[in-house]
Amino acid sequence: MPFYVSPEQAMKDKADYARKGIARGRSGVVLQYSDGILFVAPNPSRALHKISEIYDRIAFAAVGRYNEFENLRKAGVRYADVTGYLYDRDDVTARGLANWYAQALGTIFTESTKPFEVEIVVAEVGDRAERDQIYRITFDGSVADEHGFVAMGGQADQVAAILKDRYADGMPLAQAISAALAGLGGQGNGPDLPASQLEVAVLDRGRAHRRFRRLTGSRLDALLAEARSPAAAAEPPDAADANQRPPGGDVPAPDAKGDANGDPGGKGGGSGAADGDAGSPGKK
Length: 284
Fold this sequence. Notes:
Layout: H1 7-23, E1 28-33, E2 36-42, E3 51-55, E4 58-64, H2 66-86, H3 94-111, E5 118-124, E6 133-137, E7 143-146, E8 149-152, H4 156-166, H5 173-189, E9 198-204, E10 212-215, H6 217-227, H7 237-244
Antiparallel strand pairs: 1-2, 1-8, 2-9, 3-4, 4-5, 5-6, 6-7, 9-10
């Protein structure tokens, strides 16, 4: 006869096993920026992806055991395709996918001898930043609705603490990458990871139809160079604007007599061209 183990002890052992397996890997980061949602993960492999497209405006990111989260990704793609075919493409949402993943992982955790050693994020980009959705699903089927940024896997708490200090609403893409690299550097990867060691993708709200796009090659090299520049590591945009703004709120009008010194006005610091996509939308 098998030895008796209480249900509480069995669940605790499963949870500890899954947490240890996930913590052995490296973290991934998902965060919002001014034009969409950014995904960054250390990944030297060009064949095994941690970040993938699920549907038109929905993406999937995962850490942990590759064969397990790859099965979940494929199942999510089938779920999205069937739902969009039977009903409408707008009926496929990140919330619906997150609930489906939660049910699947919860069933595996309670009924299987070995739980899945995975942690996943499902994100959907909206027409406006306030409509973006980011859901984090853990190995036991728990779902968390995240806002702004999320770190998963590895030393996620340490990465999240760094992101909390570096993140700001409405960050441009280069500054968002700089914040992500700073967070990932806190787990021993170092902030100077080459492009060949990184997997980077975005959900770009400015693209039509399919909004998922991988950042590779010269485009990624240019963004990494900009992200590692001193300007990208400066304080968040809101704080910088507040420091340059006079106490009265609005910029004072010049004196009617004019300025004898001819002091020119300050130039705007935006770099919107760096965030644009010069390429055409890719096709599967």
